[in-house]
Amino acid sequence: MLPANLQLPSAQTQISAYPVFPMKEPDFNDPKTKQAMEHIRSILGFIGDDANREGLIDTPRRVIKAYYEHFCGYSMDPAEPLSRTFTEIEGYDQMVLLSGIEIQSHCEHHMVPFVGKAHVAYIPDGRVVGLSKLAKVVEIFSKRLQVQEKLTAQIAGSIQEHLKPRGVAVVVQARHYCMCYRGVHQPHAWTTTSKLTGVFLNNLATREEFLRLISITQSPSM
Ligand SMILES: [Zn+2]
Predict the structure, then answer these.
(1) Given 146, 148, 160, 173, the catalytic residue
(2) How confident is the model at residue 23 (pLDDT cuts 50, 70, 90)?
(3) Coil, strand or helix: which one is 136?
(4) Which CATH number fits domain 78-217: 3.30.1130.10, 3.30.360.10, 3.30.470.10, 3.40.50.620?
(5) pLDDT band (50, 70, 90) for residue 118
(6) What percent of the chain has pLDDT over 90?
(7) Ligand 1 center–CA 168 separation, angstroms
(8) What spacing in Å lies between the alpha carbon of 106 and ligand 1's midpoint?
(9) Domain coordinates of the chain in residue numbers?
(10) Which of 63, 83, 115, 195 is the most exposed place for a label (fewest CB within 10 A)?
(11) Would residue 148 show up in a list of annotated catalytic residues for this protein?
(12) Is residue 110 annotated as a catalytic residue, yes or no?
């Protein structure tokens, strides 16, 4: 359980505010943390700079703090936000869609950011989950080293596994900085991935309704 001063104020802000999860402070006395800081100093020398100059002297410490934030998803279990469900829904059995969820992740090949949006829908089978919990699941998986295809599949898979709805649909649209400013240098290219299960996969009308709803609620703009 997190300390009270790290709790976010309300469920409503959790959908749009970033990060969804409060950050832990790194333990700078931990030998593993000290070792990681040494490695960052080595990298600063490797690129041709002087790790001891004024502007860089605290950089390893800052990088460690940033890594705690970028990769906090490793210490979080996606089952947790999906564990509390609600059954008093008056028989609601139509689509639930949360579109425009922020994605701020890092590619596992280059450790540079990819950023964009996720759109997550499901069709309940007798129970629903709090809307903010869908955003939390997206964040838990995106705050790890990722490839977009795996991220998309993990979001859909965990919702399918823990909520057991009639189907899940996830679309992720992102720009990969490893493609923007290095390699093929395509700063305007968007990558779109989707993962569909259950009725979204087997029923064309359901799939088209999902795609129509995300197209009228979102466009991939930065
Ligand atoms: Zn990459």
Answers:
(1) 148
(2) low
(3) helix
(4) 3.30.1130.10
(5) very high
(6) 81
(7) 27
(8) 8
(9) 21-70, 78-217
(10) 83
(11) yes
(12) yes
Model pLDDT, residue 215? 87
Q: Which residue has the tokens 């997550």?
A: 120
- pLDDT above 60: residue 4: no
Question: Which SS3 state, helix, strand or coil, does residue 85 take?
Answer: strand
| CA 139 to ligand 1 centroid distance, Å | 19
Query: For this structure, is 107 an active site residue?
Result: yes
CA distances from 52 to 30, 35, 37, 49 (A): 22, 17, 13, 9
Tokens of 149: 């295809």
* 194: its two tokens: 């989707």
H/E stretch holding 16: helix 11-16
